[in-house]
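Box 3.1 A note on notation
Throughout this textbook, protein chains are presented in two layers. The first layer is the amino acid sequence; the second is a token string describing backbone geometry. Keep the layers aligned when reading.
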Amino acid sequence: LITKKKTAVSEVAVTKMVSRSYSNLLELASGDSPTFGRMNRQIPRIMAVAGIMSNIDNDSKESVSSDLPPKDRIIIVANELPIRAQRKLESNIGSSSGNSSNSSNCCSKSWNFSWDANSLLLQLKDGLGDEATEVIYVGCLKEEIHPNEQEEVYQVLLESFKCVPTFLPSDLYSRYYHGFCKQQLWPLFHYMLPLSPDLGGRFDRTLWQAYVSVNKIFADRIMEVINPEDDFVWIHDYHLMVLPTFLRKRFNRVKLGFFLHSPFPSSEIYKTLPIREELLRALLNSDLIGFHTFDYARHFLSCCSRMLGLTYESKRGYIGLEYYGRTVSIKILPVGIHMGQLQSVLSLPETETKVKELIDRYCRKGRTMLLGVDDMDIFKGITLKLLAMEQLLTQHPEWQGKVVLVQIANPARGKGKDVKEMQAETYSTVKRINETFGRPGYDPIVLIDAPLKFYERVAYYVVAECCLVTAVRDGMNLIPYEYIVSRQGNEKLDKILKLDPNNRSHKSMLVVSEFIGCSPSLSGAIRVNPWNVDAVADAMDSALEVAEPEKQLRHEKHYKYVSTHDVGYWARSFLQDLERSCAEHGRRRCWGIGFGLSFRVVALDQSFRKLSMEHIVSAYKRTKTRAILLDYDDTLMPQGSIDKRPSSKSIDILNKLLRNETSLFFALATSSWDWRYSAETQLKAQREQ
């Protein structure tokens, strides 16, 4: 009953908002000129209660902030909110109620909430650093909230964090995330075809329907808080690829950007997806589409060209796709890291203590640390890295007892048989290598598969002589960036590392896969093909043998790039291009056509006028000489018809026109020579008559 009531109230409010965007359809039909201009701010910027928009018709005289300049507002949409949720212990429930005075840590009756400092979405907001910009988050919580608690949790998150939680039933979320996203989209986007049931999931229509349903629910949540004439909407990643269609269908002029954080495969791989055109058309309902690398953007453009017949061109340095009168811009910009957060972690006493511990454990025993940090994922190439370490110790026995590979394996995000098989293979490989090359007090490989705190991981970065990132396919991967900044350190860490205070020249070495998004940005790294175990082993040996001055030069070059292209630079650049891409919205006439996921918006110039039947009939009657231009395929006959002769009904209509008119000329575009010859013969006979 609560849901029905909320939905009913929302529909009333939404109707008022939608009417502004769809009024132009009636104007097109009538031939009247459309009206443009900024929408009066009668819709509240933030809802007080979930699903209920209060004060929709509020009198401007009673508005407290009517004289203040409005804030720019960005609605950031992703699968997960940048929020940590922890259920209270039974003994603590009831001891505290309401919101904490600290906005970074609030609670409801049963839950404690705090910001997730490691979330890219939160770092994005900090990177903007603009108090005039208001950020609203829409997404799911990592923990499942009971339906009886959802209303209260919604209220707390909205008021304290400006987050709009999207609550999904557990079975629907499982089919959407673990089913379609992780078993079908994720493998395909990483170049794994479902050639057998063991190699990725075969396409399942029910999982696709769950994916579409969740995207629709996200659209409904956004509807509750959006001001379509003013707000910018920024959607993140492959979980919400059809969301642009639902938003564009409701608001033709919504300012909409999409950024894909995973790879986009080549057209030969992508075209195997049964719903390939639906996803492409949905993405093209965005105003700006962002990719980490040029290759990912090129693959997307190639798919649009080959499957939809679209063309693209570069306009004043920007790549644009023409799509039904709209120009969809393409942005190529790799994401960066949050410099401030990482530098603050480097200054923590806990980090310094952990660094001293690692130095005692490895450096003072004369051992050099190589470091790998990866998710326990089939595409991270952990096993290949271990085999390369084995090859290094075999081909260069002088490194035995001197080099240690510390492999930090973060918990897997997905589920499935492939993850379990990879875990088993990793454990068995580590055991075999340690048994072969280990000795008392020395294991060549140290596998850490328990979750580490961020400061602990940073401490490993500080001590490691070389970082190895050998994923077989990855969207971006920011581990090398974090490693570079950590190796830059600070004065206290320099003292712990016993660097010369008069010449604190920092150094770092990277071995990175050529198949990850950050590789083109790190020109000083040693690039490898992770599938070539011998080449990776040689790269590891080269990284250990590089002279100190060259290590310093490589580090300086990398640090200069990473420190200037941080997450704030990435966010500001994307939003600037989004604003530029939406600049023509108010000067174009929009006409929504199509049903379902085939919906798109036709953008027309203001001078465009739709032909009305009354005007055509009136003009036809007034004139004495008429010319009729007819297409052939899909006009006089069906497009896919094997029989290229026109139907008897079409011929009857043409004959009637010829008999009843004294000065009528036909022009027909056709690929059938026989029909064209017949038409020309009739025209010739008519002229002679």
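The first strand starts at residue 72 and ends at 80. Residues 593 and 600 are 6 Å apart (CA to CA).
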